[in-house]
Each structure stands twice: as structure tokens, then as C-alpha cells.
Amino acid sequence: MYKSLVLASLSLLWVGKAVAEDGSAREQFVQGMERVSQGNRYHDRARLMEGRGILERAQLSNPEDALATYYLAYAEYELIRHGMITKDSGLYDRYVDIAVAHAQRVLRLRPEWSEGFALLANIYGIQISHSWVKSATLGPEANALMQRAIESDSTNPRAWLVNGIMKFNTPAFFGGSVEVALANFTRALELFEKPSQSEPLSPGWGHLETYAWLGRALEKNERPDEALAAFRKALEIDPEFVWVKRVLLPALTKKLTQPSAQ
Length: 262
Hints:
- The protein has two domains: 111 residues, no CATH class; 96 residues, Tetratricopeptide repeat domain (Serine Threonine Protein Phosphatase 5, Tetratricopeptide repeat, Alpha Horseshoe).
- Helices cover 76% and strands 0% of the residues.
- It has 13 helices and no strands.
């Protein structure tokens, strides 16, 4: 089932004219994205690193191609997220600045692109989660980017996903809202599950992650049965999605089966 999921996802990766016209570069690009997808699926640092290395070579061969740079930045986003989750400060520090630089370059190469806005906002969100000191400067920038992502393409599910993640992670005092996050995740899923109207090979990541975030928001909103349903839906799509299979679903199941405190 996963192989068909990867092929479906890779069929939504658009690689820009230069890469598309270069068969060897395109093959290298698809191979790199497959490794990144596997690294995300299994929460595997080595596969993320391998995928990033392949994508870096593809991008260096096509430095003016916005999509080659986009997916290199996306691979680096996954690496810094992995570093933060695993408390690997060396991994985070190694890639955080270059991830920002590559994401900013995407928007210089392809201005007003919803996908570019959403990815850069997501990277800023990771930086804020890593150090809330950065929220004063990066918070307004991330919020502006998310707004522009939605305004430039309201049918982009990743724009709604990233907006939901930011609303979920931001304290209410600073404008966060679980209810707004739930609405954004729900909207993202509606868009993910519509027939794609995007260009062939356009970005396709985020569907599984949206179910995971929806479940987290439902759990925080004290709706555990609906949270379980969201987690199980993610595993229907990919039974080996590690974040849900080994972290989120077991933690919620354990909480629900523990005797209530007297």
C-alpha cells in the first residue's frame, strides 16, 4: 500500500522545466523525494539525509529552477523538524539557516507562489517552536506568509495545514486557537481529498500529517473518540506512518484506558 501511496505522491511532484527536460536530473529528483518521503514515514534520519543529498545535487545542476530549490528546502525542513523532535541540536543547527535561505530563494525565483509562502512559514514555525524568543520577530512574518499563502491560492491544502499548525502551537494569549486550528485542518483535508486540479507533478505532501494534526487538535479539544478516528484514518492511508502508529495513537489509547483519578 505504501508503494502506491509514494507513487501517487510522486506523481504530484512538479519539477520545473529544466529538470523535466533533463531525464537524468528528473530521475535524481524523484529518487531524492522518495527517500525524503520514506524518512518522514519511518522517522528515519539516515533516509532524510540521503534524500537531501540527492536533492542538493539535483538543485545544484538546476540552480534557477524554483521547484528543485523548493524540494531541497522541504527536505531540510524535515531534517530540522527531525532534529527538534529527537533533541538533536547538531542536526537542527546544521540545516536551519540553509533551509530558510533556500525557502526564501524559492520565492525570489517564483514570487507570489502559495507553496513557497506556506513552506517558509512552516520553517519559521519550527524555529519559533525551537526557541520562543524568536516569536517576537518571526511570528508576525510567519503569520503574514500564511495569509499570503491562502490569498494567493485558497485551494492549496498545505496553506491551510500550515496555518492550522501555527494556530495550534501558538498560545491563546498570542492569537492561537485550537478551534481555528481544527477548522483549518478540516479545510485542508477537504482540499486534499478533492480531485487534484494542479499541474502534473506539483507538490503533494501533507495529507497524512493533516490527519495527525487534526487528531492532536481534537484530543486537545477533549474529543478523544474523534481524535482516535483521525489517527486511524491516517493509518488506513499508510499503516506504517510512525508518528501516528508509535507515538500519537498509543499515547491516546493509553490515556483512555487508564483508570480515572479518584
